[in-house]
Amino acid sequence: MLELLHIENIAVIESADISFRPGFNALTGETGAGKSIVIDAMSAVLGGRASRELIRTGADKAFVSAVFSQVPPTLPGLADNGVTPDEDGNLLLQREIGGDGKNVCRANGRPLTVTQLRQIGGELLNIHGQHDGQQLLDEEQHGAYLDRFGRMEAPLAAYRSAYDAMAAIRDQIRSLQMNEAEKARRMDSLRFQIDELERAELVPGEEEELNARRELLRNGEKYIAALSGADYCLSGDDNGAGAVSAIREAEEALRGIRTLSDELGELYKRLESIRCEVYDLAETIRDKRAEFAFSPAELDAAEARTDQLYRLKKKYGATVEDMIAYLEQCRSELDAMETADDTLILLNGKLKKAEAVVRAAGAELTQKRKAAAQALEQRIQSELRDLDMNKVRFAIEFTEKEPVWQTSWMSAYIQKDAFEKYALKTTDGELVALAAYEILENDVMVHITYIESQPESNPTIVGHSKRYQGIGRVLIAYGIKLSIDHGCGGTVTFEAKVPELAEHYVRDYGACPLPSFGGAPRYELSGEAAMNIFVTYLK
């Protein structure tokens, strides 16, 4: 519990010590007496927000400390930050607030950050204000309150894990579902890149060796001249002796007297050793000179290879190793695209299983929430009876959410920031249709989310007649406009979720079918057929 609160230079309080006792403690006083200041000081020492305006006028800094007793050493906030109570179970929290905005925080003398202090303080004390109860009216928080009461961490985590797994599979399917033209272009690009990199026959580490050899070839004449000069100095020629011969003559001069003293013997041995070393050195230089064959053709080849690697690096990676890694990436992507149909079949099978797991996890979570709701109802009713509020009834209701996909933007598959959304309304403001447009490299994908009075999709029929005509064409026409604006030539693609809608697209729009990759049938509208719809509705 909180035993002692010490305050220095907080607002109007110059210095104060407040002791607390077990049980109920009350702070009373007139308006302006400083009750709220005490709460602010208490919040500050627990890691709450504390601005420099809190410092008493004329003071350079403010200081607050709090002593807590009977603090368990296993408290999560303490263990996470390496803080322990003293042997008596006491914990001293301190916070100094400087006029320059800097804070110095400590727990039993150990320096802490404000964040660490807040974590520890949150485990020791809760401060509730007069408006906290208003949060109970926030419907968005009701589910969280029930989950905390019912300790739903495990089933909620299981549901979220299952949902994330399902969403990941959906993303994989979506990434493989591209129209045929886009797929063909991407595959052609990959094949070109693979062919270019394979013909280069890249070898790890070759760039370093190539640069060294090229530098040597560029300086071939200087290289040969230097080695020849060194060879002449060491070995000589027909016109004169070299260093090897001179050293051999010196050695022979000392041979006859080498036994006269140890010193002379040592000199002779040194000459002998030097002669051998210089001889070996001369042999090495001659070998280097002999093995080096300067060829202008080899230099040209090295320069050409260097230029080739430079051009490839500008496109595929900073090093040869990076380019080899990119080549493997392209091979994998091409293989995945070539087997996309089979992969999609497998993924759709996985998706059905994942959806079943999500439904099962959701059903279990709902069941446990309902059980927790009954327990919460009983607890609150019991508390109400203790407050002599016997006529008050508290109940938790579970209701199914109305489907929102038909008349809102909540559909999961269009929740991308990159999608351009279009709402079609009457002059009276009545919502007629919703569509989302995915701007691709060579076309625009039209996602019709909601459409009024179309018997081929989502009918809203008055009697036996449609309320509105031509809505689908308007949505497609707007997609054609976007396609033209983004340089895609007016080409649009879209899906047909039912056979009747597919027939409608072919018969009335002039659309051409595309491979569906295991999903809903896909259609492309381009050329004259697209221009006819565009001119009719938007031009």
Explain briefly what this protein structure is.
The chain is of the alpha+beta class. It has helices at 35-45, 76-80, 114-124, 142-149, 153-176, 180-200, 206-218, 220-235, 243-255, 262-291, 296-316, 320-338, 340-386, 471-485, 499-509, 527-537; strands at 2-10, 13-19, 61-68, 91-98, 103-107, 110-112, 236-237, 240-241, 420-425, 431-439, 444-451, 492-495, 512-514, 522-525.
Query: What is the straight-line distance between the termini?
Result: 76 Å
* Adjacency order of strands in the biggest sheet: 2-1-3-4-5-6
**Total of domains:** 4
Give the structural class: alpha+beta
Helix content: 40-55%
Largest sheet at a glance? 6 strands, antiparallel
Proportion of beta-strand residues:
5-15%
List the secondary-structure elements in sequence, H or E. EEHEHEEEHHHHHHEEHHHHHEEEHEHEEH
Low-confidence stretches: 402-413, 453-465
The coarse silhouette is flat
Please give the number of β-strands: 14
Any idea what the radius of gyration is? 42 Å
How confident overall, as mean pLDDT?
Answer: 81
Total of helices: 16
Key words describing this protein structure:
single chain; 539 residues; alpha+beta; Rossmann fold; 4 domains; six-stranded antiparallel sheet; six-stranded mixed sheet; 14 strands; flat
Structure description:
The chain is α+β, with helices and mostly antiparallel strands and 539 residues long. It has four domains: 2-128, Rossmann fold; 141-177 and 340-399; 186-338, no CATH class; 412-537, Aminopeptidase, CATH 3.40.630.30. Helices cover 51% and strands 14% of the residues. It has a six-stranded antiparallel sheet, with helices on one face. A six-stranded mixed sheet has the order 9-10-11-12-14-13. A two-stranded antiparallel sheet has the order 7-8.
